[in-house]
Amino acid sequence: MDKLDTILKEIRDSRQAIENRLDMITTDMNIIEDDQAKLSYRLKQTVSIVADILPTHNDNKNAIVKLQQQMEALQEWIEDAEGRSQCNNIRIIGLPEGKEGNNPTQYIETWLQSIAKDKLSIHFVVERAHRIPGRKPIPGAPARPVIARILNNRDRDVALQVARELDPIIIDNARISLYPDYSLAVQKRRASFQIIKPRLRKMEIKYALLFPAKLCITHNQKMHFFDSPDLVSTWLDENFPYSRAVEQNNGHHAGQPPQHRRDKRNKAQMSRKRTGPRGTKQCITNCGLPAGDELLSLQNCFFDR
């Protein structure tokens, strides 16, 4: 009998323990249900907020795209306006510091008239001239460039052409060079075409670099315009596929002549420099462009885009 009582007592204890555990589980389940209800409410709120935000987000996204397009257009317009404002400028490199005295405008005007003689118009005027702002260099350091604004764009072209023909121009044992004055952005864009120009010259294709940075190729009495060297390369590959194959068979990349041809060309250029300037000689500008491209008449360079 005692044994049966013991078993019953153990059963009652186990039942009580199970009931206690069930109470705890029930409590936990109630807490979980409350949390789930709160999460469900918050989820509904979130969905509602997202539903309200989504149309606005799409509108904002479209507005951002439009603003980016407008910004790019304005940036291009600003660069174009900056370049056109400098279209009559000449950048003079190498003029010794202080040579212009207290009146750089008068000095540059008189000097250009002396080297160009009667090639300039009777209305030739240098509107203003000044050194690039900055600290005066120490003795022996390169002089700061001089920027001169010419009143007439034809006189500007004539001055650049005369400088090419008289190269080298020496003042006080310093070599003077004249270049068009382009903005930094325009310089970079124009310099990007340097990689494709050798290929065009080798293929004897006529081209001109228009302002601000548009390459014009004349082929079969038609003019083709390109905004980047990649577009030029693609056009050449499509219209002259044999040229790429021939250059690859010769073991060198398009636009880059073999070493012996490059050496021969360099020797020829050095020879022309020693014997005197020629119309076909190239001078490297401050942005690394051939002078022949820089001296296009502004009548041909400026056009409505």
Strand content: 5-15%
| Average predicted local confidence, pLDDT | 79
Spans of at least 5 consecutive residues whose pLDDT stays below 50 are 251-261, 271-305
Helix-strand topology string? HEHEEHEEHHEEEHHHHH
Helix coverage percent: 55-70%
The DSSP helix count reads 10
What can be said about the biggest beta sheet? 5 strands, antiparallel
The helix/strand class is alpha+beta
Basic shape: elongated
User: Nearest-angstrom radius of gyration?
Assistant: 38 Å
Q: What's the arrangement of secondary structure elements?
A:
Elements: H1 2-85, E1 89-93, H2 104-116, E2 126-131, E3 146-150, H3 153-166, E4 169-171, E5 174-180, H4 184-191, H5 197-202, E6 206-210, E7 214-219, E8 222-226, H6 229-239, H7 241-249, H8 259-275, H9 291-294, H10 298-301
Antiparallel strand pairs: 1-3, 1-5, 2-3, 4-5, 6-7, 7-8
